[in-house]
Fold this sequence. Notes:
The structure holds 2 protein chains of 2 kinds.
Chain A: H1 4-32, H2 36-60, H3 63-71, H4 75-99
Helix pairs in contact in A: 1-2, 1-4, 2-3
Chain B: H1 2-10, H2 15-27, E1 30-31, H3 32-39, H4 43-55, E2 59-61, E3 69-72, H5 74-78, H6 80-88
Amino acid sequence: MVAWIDLARAAVGLNMLLLLALIYVWGRNYYHIRSKHTLGLLLFALLLLGENAIAMYFYSLDPLLSAWFSTAVPDPAWQAMMALHVFETVALAVLAWITWD
Amino acid sequence: MEAVLWYVLTSTRGGANRIRILRALDERPRNANRLAEELDLDYKTVRHHLDVLEENDILTDSGDDYGAVYLPTDRVRNYWDTVEQIMESTE
């Protein structure tokens, strides 16, 4: 049986991959085009990557929180958390789709 | 229009080549073949960029199928300040 925490880790991992793809494109563009817009998009992606990295740390590495998240959080709370993660994944996928063009 | 220009030209993977295409077509309208030769790009890549630029009302074409020449739209001419600003920040 797959635990909710594994699904949450997968969604967060997917968010991080999508953000790395965006950072690759926006970073390369910023290298060539030094504008406020290219810098702004790059910073946005880096900060959102930070957010997901912190979530991953809480879910997987933090000694206190990772133990708590994997044993003590009831399903309805996970379902609510998953909705947030999954909406973010879809939003990032759309952004990556128009950017990888 | 300004937001579209910034996104399509500076924030997508193909942005840098689209700026080169727009710059070449501003000098003189050309067809896809000539553009590919002049910018040393794959014909299919050029076709794709031309389609994206047309879809966003940045370029228009003369309509004669294969020989169609492409040129900037009147609409983008009205926003040429933005285009120049983008071109200037590119190097």
